[in-house]
Amino acid sequence: DADKLVTSPNLTSCHQSYGRDDLLVDCCPPEIAATQKFIDFTFPDPSTPQRVRRPAHLLDDDYIAKYNKAVSIMKSLPYSDPRSFRRQADMHCIYCTGAYNKKYSNNVSLNIHGSWFFFPWHRMYLYFHERILRSFIDDDVFALPFWNWDSPDGMTIPEMFLNHEALSHIQRDASHFPPRVVDFDFKGEESGLGPEEQVEKNLAMMYHQMVSGAKNTGLFMGCAYYPGEGGFCDGPGTLELVPHNTLHAWVGSSFNPQREDMGAFYSAARDPIFYAHHSNIDRMWEVWMELHGKAIDDPARLGSYFYFYDENLQLVRVKVSDVVNITNLGYAYEKVDLPWLNKRP
Ligand code: C2O
C-alpha cells in the first residue's frame, strides 16, 4: 500500500499535547474529524486573478483596513466554526505540538516542525487562512502581507500590527516595538547592538541561512521525515532555526515562560503577526529554490498529506505535491530586493 510510505495524520487520534513541559493543552477540533467527510484539493481555476502578497511595511491604509476587517470578522466567529481565529490558531497547535498521531503508527505523534514538512505544511496553512479571510471581504485579489524582515526597511514590527484592533496583540514584548530592529540571533537576551550594527548582523546571518549554509536540500529543508514506526526527526533546516525560531521568541512577551504567544508553538498563531512572519518564510522558500535551482522530488515527501478547512467549512486533504508551485495556487510574491545576497560575512 503506497499510502503507508507517506506521512499523514490519523484524524481520529487527536489528543491533548504538551504546549510546554509543564502545560498540557487541548487544541483538538470539537467535532470528531473522523465523521467529517473530506474532499481532495483541486487547484483554483487558472482564470482567477493572481493574488500578490506584498511587504507589510509598504501597504496602504485601504489595504490595512481591509485586512483588519477580515481578521475582526474571523475573531467574531464562535469556536465551533473552524474558520474562527482561535480555531485557525489551534490548527497550528495541533500539528505543531503533536496532537495527532501519524497514520499507520502506534501512537507516534506527528509534528511538522524540525523537519522537511516545515515549509509545505505552513504554506498550506497560510493558503487556507488567506482564502478564509478573502471570503469575509469584498476583494477577490486580497492576499496576506509578508513581514519583509530580510530587508533593512522591514526590520521592525510592521506598523499595521500595532495600531489596528484586530491585528495588534497584547502578548508581545513592548521593548521590541519600533524603532527597535529585529535581532536574528535572539536567545532571550538583548544584543546591545545599535540599529546599524544589528541590521548588518542580520543581513550576514541571512546570507548564511539562505546561501552559504544552505547549499543542499537537507540543510535548508531540515531532517527527512521518513515513515515507519520509529519515524521521528528533529532537525530544523537553516531558515527554520534562524530567523524563524529566533523571531518568534523576539516578538513574544518576556513575562511569559516561553515568551508566549509567539514564542511557543501551541500559542504562536494566536498573534496575527504570525501569518505575516510565515508569509515571508514561505517567500524565502521560493527565493531559495530560485537561487539554488532545487525542488522537492522525493515521492514520500510529495505524497504526504494534511487536512485543512476551507472557507466553505469543507475539510480538504492536501498533498505536499499540491503546494510546490505557488503559481498553481494562484498567488505570487511581489519581487523586492534581496539586500543580503551580497553580504558574505
Ligand atoms: Cu509552526 Cu512559525 O511555526
Automatic annotation (TrEMBL):
Cofactors: Cu(2+)
Family to which the UniProt record says this protein belongs: Belongs to the tyrosinase family.
GO MF annotation list: catechol oxidase activity; metal ion binding
Key words of the record: Copper, Disulfide bond, Membrane, Metal-binding, Oxidoreductase, Thioether bond, Transmembrane, Transmembrane helix
Taxonomy of the source species: Eukaryota, Viridiplantae, Streptophyta, Embryophyta, Tracheophyta
Domain Tyrosinase copper-binding: 113-130, 271-282
Protein known as: Tyrosinase copper-binding domain-containing protein
Species in which this protein is naturally found: Rhamnella rubrinervis
Keyword Lyase: no
Residue range from the parent sequence: 62 to 406 of 578
